[in-house]
Amino acid sequence: MSNTDFVLAIEDLTVSFDGFKAVDKLNMYIDKNELRVVIGPNGAGKTTVLDLICGKTKSTAGSIKFKNRELTKLSEHEIVRAGVGRKFQTPSIYENLTVYQNLEVSYPKGRGVFGSLFFKRSDAVVAQVHKIAKEIMMEDILGMEAALLSHGQKQWLEIGMLLMQEPELLMLDEPVAGMSAKERDQTAELLNRICQNRSVIVIEHDMEFVKKIAHKVTVLHQGKILAEGAMDKVQANEKVIEVYLGH
Ligand SMILES: Nc1ncnc2c1ncn2[C@@H]1O[C@H](COP(=O)(O)OP(=O)(O)OP(=O)(O)O)[C@@H](O)[C@H]1O
């Protein structure tokens, strides 16, 4: 398989903050429809890798190819338009809008909150809202104000808002932080569903959750890959136990 067959091919990626290499000559390859989980101790560089992919942080050296297109030269907006979605830890939903409206304003052709509330709803938008609402288990509460949702539902709504743009790569930073056990299980099912037609990268510390979702796990340590592969192999790796799992 050549590198051009991967959805995402990261090669020799390095970022240096005042001489400190937070990410150091990283190579990582993500397949189509793969759900990859990135784990590792605090400060390992996990969030920085996602920041580099989505263009929030600019690399010092190396390459990030998404469907063979170099991302390191693109702006954050261009990267979103290329098909890369990123969810941060704190949800950025519109609390005073309904679930429906939150999804509707996220439709790519919408023109921001105020413009989109008044635009003529095309059938395509309505269909897309219902399709995504079903996917995020919110079809029955489309009329509910987002402020009234549970913490877990707010996280799912934000995932739904990203799905409205049909990204081919979706990146999530600790999606189950603060969720109940039931919400964690439902989120695992949700992620297993959504990676059926896109690639997903998740940063996560909850190993029970990682086991339920990961196709492959990448362990980062000091900006480099310490281990990579199936969860059971990674869990049994002595170096991984020493720097991360044993703590
Ligand atoms: N913009 C920045 N300027 C300077 N240093 C930074 C910057 N961003 C990240 N770092 C440093 O890079 C290192 C990696 O941070 P990062 O947030 O990527 O780690 P992480 O693996 O996501 O950790 P955590 O699990 O705690 O979220 C840390 O030492 C951090 O202080």
The percentage helix is: 25-40%
Neighbour order of strands in the largest sheet: 6-7-8-3-9-10
CATH class of the largest domain: Alpha Beta
Mean pLDDT, as a whole number? 91
Tally of extended strands? Answer: 10
Shape: globular
* Contiguous uncertain segments of 5+ residues: 110-114
InterPro entries: ABC_AA/LPS_Transport, ABC_transporter-like_ATP-bd, ABC_transptr_urea_ATP-bd_UrtD, BCA_ABC_TP_C, P-loop_NTPase
GO molecular function: ATP binding
Keywords: ATP-binding, Nucleotide-binding, Transport
Protein name: Urea ABC transporter ATP-binding protein UrtD
Task: Give an account of the 3D structure.
The structure is a single chain. With 247 residues, the chain is an alpha/beta fold. It has helices spanning 46-53, 76-82, 99-105, 112-118, 123-135, 151-163, 181-194, 207-213, 231-236, 238-245, and strands spanning 8-17, 20-30, 35-39, 61-66, 69-70, 84-87, 169-173, 199-203, 216-221, 224-229. The chain folds into 2 domains: 3-83 and 167-245, 3-Layer(aba) Sandwich (Rossmann fold); 95-164, no CATH class. The chain has a 6-stranded mixed sheet with strand order 6-7-8-3-9-10, sandwiched between helices. Strands 2-1-4-5 form a 4-stranded antiparallel sheet, covered by helices on one side. Strand 9 and strand 10 form a beta hairpin. The structure holds adenosine-5'-triphosphate. The site of adenosine-5'-triphosphate has 10 residues, from helix 1. Residues 17, 22, 40, 42-48 line the site of adenosine-5'-triphosphate.
